[in-house]
């Protein structure tokens, strides 16, 4: 017997920005309940009846941080391409503003009882922008290519797919070699947009195909019109979109790398939407009647990662002592203006269905930290330190958090030196060379709690700690294959308990930020939980 899984049944918990593989770069970078809670300063979207767009305003301007690396959203992971791609292309599933799984090109899907076959049922009437039908052939072509080309972003995730079978033009089955129900969520994240076979299957690699530079044939609610490097990307409404024509005729993605410039543009009405408002502007913008602010919480905690094979921090006693020095409430208030909440759980606590809120990181206790070290045989030197010479690699944006923790550790007799770098230098040293004792990062802990295995599982490339625990690996593997959500949650909570006991990672604060939107806009992406996708602007309209 197969289980038909719609978004309401399989809203698996998931964290870009978003977020960021290291909360400063690309997304690496969401549950049936609040995977991303939101608070708004003004009523949002959804007027009664069928809303109509104000004819005086028919262009929506959205800020993005920089130029895209490519216009092929299935080739690489690229934060700057994500918003345009979401409106040009479709995926099988997608994430909404609360980071839950909802349908996209697949209106529903079946998972076999052994979780070794996922059958996707495509929406009827989907067409490419040139009028060709989007069907199962395009799905099979796209994901066969991804599986066969390790340079594509999602290729490693396709290793659990043995083959893809076309059942009929609107039905396609993925036959798996490993049961993993989280795959339905992961295929709604980065590097999974369906591409047109009749455009891309021309004998060229994707990176050489002109369509990866000029995406003239998509399937989404908007069509590509133009791109001006360093300036903007312009899309126009697709009147034939299967989900209905967008209400706003034109989207302009304005490329503004500088935050101060972007915030002034938002205040001036030159930009209508900014996804992440810097903390320094929040109080001012909350009082601005021309703007509405929405607080978005993501399962993307700022965390400390220990290289468990490095000198000093290889000792669990040292890691335990550092954990006891962290005052999360103080860090939340002083470093992040109270916007980033304290995080005591090993998996983000906003993902309520599976977060372990019982076996958590300890509250600050300096005397307890000293005792841990003394019980482990450490003695104070002439300067009052039990241990010194610990180096902490931090990139710009996390230094305030680090300074507060370093000061608390000093009280406990732990000497830590912060090594502050700009992000690219940090990424080279930490991400590529893996040359560090301890480091800080953020990043999306999703789009399912199976991400724990990716981040901390034995041998995983994203296991920056170099940590290995066979029981943790077993629990994560069993949870990934379990179709019952309550049983999955029990397994993942047990895995989190191990993380708290062995401390390869310490979560410090949860990730949260405000988006800023012109007050006369409704049905924006943040208004569409359970209804439309994150970064989908096709429902927006000016009141």
How would you characterize the overall build of this protein?
The protein has 543 residues and is an alpha+beta fold. Helix content is 25%, strand content 23%. Strands 2, 13, 14, 15, 16, 17 and 18 form a 7-stranded mixed beta sheet that branches. It has a 5-stranded antiparallel beta sheet with strand order 1-6-7-9-8, covered by helices on one side. A 4-stranded mixed beta sheet has the order 3-12-11-10, covered by helices on one side. The longest helix is centred in the last third of the chain and has 18 residues, at 485-502.
Per DSSP E runs of 2 or more residues, the count of β-strands stands at: 20
Shape: globular
**Unreliably modeled segments:** 1-48
Distance between the termini: 48 Å
Bin the helical content: 10-25%
Portion in beta strands: 15-25%
């Amino acid at each position: 017997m197969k289980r038909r899984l719609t978004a309401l049944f399989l809203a698996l918990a998931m964290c870009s920005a978003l977020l960021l593989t290291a909360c400063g770069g690309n997304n690496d970078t969401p549950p049936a309940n609040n995977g991303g809670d939101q608070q708004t300063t003004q009523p949002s979207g959804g007027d009664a009846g069928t809303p109509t767009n104000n004819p005086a305003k028919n262009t929506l301007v959205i800020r993005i941080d920089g130029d895209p690396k490519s216009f092929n959203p299935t080739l690489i992971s690229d934060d700057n391409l994500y918003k345009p791609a979401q409106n040009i292309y479709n995926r099988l599933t997608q994430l909404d503003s609360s980071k839950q799984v909802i349908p996209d090109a697949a209106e529903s899907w079946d998972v076999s009882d052994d979780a070794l076959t996922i059958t996707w049922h495509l929406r009827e009437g989907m067409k490419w922008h040139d009028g060709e039908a989007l069907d199962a052939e395009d799905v099979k072509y796209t994901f066969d290519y991804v599986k066969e080309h390790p340079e594509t972003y999602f290729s490693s995730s396709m290793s659990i797919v043995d083959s893809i079978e076309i059942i009929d033009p609107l039905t396609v089955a993925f036959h798996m070699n490993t049961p993993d129900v989280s795959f339905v969520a992961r295929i709604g994240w980065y590097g999974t947009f369906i591409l047109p076979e009749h455009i891309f299957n021309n004998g060229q690699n994707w990176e050489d195909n002109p369509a990866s530079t000029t995406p003239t044939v998509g399937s989404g609610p908007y069509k590509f019109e133009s791109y001006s490097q360093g300036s903007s990307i312009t899309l126009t409404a697709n009147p034939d979109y299967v989900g209905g024509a967008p209400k706003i005729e034109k989207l302009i993605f304005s490329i503004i790398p500088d935050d101060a410039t972007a915030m002034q543009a938002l205040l001036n009405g030159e930009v209508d939407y900014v996804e992440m408002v810097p903390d320094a502007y929040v109080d001012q913008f909350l009082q601005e009647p021309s703007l509405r602010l929405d607080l978005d919480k993501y399962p993307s905690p700022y965390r400390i990662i220990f290289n468990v094979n490095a000198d000093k921090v290889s000792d669990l006693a040292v890691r335990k002592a550092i954990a006891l020095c962290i005052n999360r409430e103080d860090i939340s208030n002083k470093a992040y203006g109270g916007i980033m909440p304290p995080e005591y759980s090993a998996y983000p606590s906003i993902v309520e269905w599976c977060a372990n809120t019982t076996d958590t990181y300890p509250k600050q206790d300096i005397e307890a930290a000293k005792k841990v070290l003394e019980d482990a045989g450490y003695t104070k030197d002439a300067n009052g330190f039990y241990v010194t010479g610990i180096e902490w690699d931090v990139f710009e944006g996390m230094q305030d958090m680090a300074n507060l923790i370093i000061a608390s550790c000093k009280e406990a007799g732990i000497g830590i030196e912060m090594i502050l770098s700009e992000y690219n230098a940090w990424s080279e040293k930490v991400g590529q060379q893996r040359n560090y004792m301890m480091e800080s990062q953020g990043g999306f802990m999703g789009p399912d709690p199976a991400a724990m295995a990716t981040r901390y599982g034995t041998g995983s490339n994203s296991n920056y700690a170099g940590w290995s625990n066979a029981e943790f690996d077993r629990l994560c593997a069993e949870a990934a294959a379990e179709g019952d959500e309550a049983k999955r949650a029990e397994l993942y909570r047990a895995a989190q308990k191990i993380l708290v006991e062995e401390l390869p990672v310490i979560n410090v604060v949860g990730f949260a930020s405000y988006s800023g939107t012109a007050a006369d806009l409704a049905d924006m992406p943040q208004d569409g939980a359970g209804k439309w996708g994150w970064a989908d602007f096709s429902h927006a309209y000016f009141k």
